[in-house]
Amino acid sequence: VFPSLAQAQASVANEVYQELGQPSVFLFCPTEYCSSLCSPSPSQSCYLQTIGQELLPGISVIWTGPKVVSQELSAVLLEEVEAVLRRRPVIWDNLYANDYDCRRVFLGPYMGRAPGLLARLHGLLLNPNCELQANFIPIHTLGTWFQSELGGCAPPDRAGVEAVAALGDSQGAQGGSYSPQEALELALRDWVAEINQQALEPGG
């Protein structure tokens, strides 16, 4: 029925999106969702070019970066992806994911993401560790990174203001500067306080 996989996927996604009344959040994960899966590159991928052309503009596209698990995300790469998709991507960040190897757990701070990255994104999802308690530092330091990014960007919309308020004043770097080491120290301080509080509770 369709001349290509990309056209088939875009057609089905568009139809579902319209049938649901064009919701404000509708995510599409392409078959080529990182640079290493693109042939020969994101900007020259016939698949991504078709997705960018055919997918309705209100549909957001998920991207994981250079690889499935990306150590770094750069503004240059995101500009390339935005150009071919004709929209800013939603990053599905697998930095902490360990569902592919549960013997590994990354407990370090959110890092390897270029300053000013938020302006190039339509959204960011963090794929966590499988172990619930091991996600305190990842989520805490992501919050600090997010606050520092908003500090270096244009004034956020109302949703952004509320998100920052929910993080708490003590967690954020000011003025758009983010230090992974400082973020880690803030997270460890709050984590120890939470562990101590839980220890005092009945059955703790």
Automatic annotation (TrEMBL):
Taxonomic superkingdom: Eukaryota
MF term (GO), any: beta-N-acetylglucosaminidase activity
Ranges in coiled-coil conformation: none
Membrane-traversing stretches: none
Classification via InterPro entries: GH, Glycosyl_Hydrolase_84, O-GlcNAcase_cat
GO biological process: glycoprotein metabolic process
Residue ranges of domain GH84 in the record: 1-150
Pfam family, one: NAGidase
Protein name: OGA GlcNAcase
Provenance organism: Cettia cetti
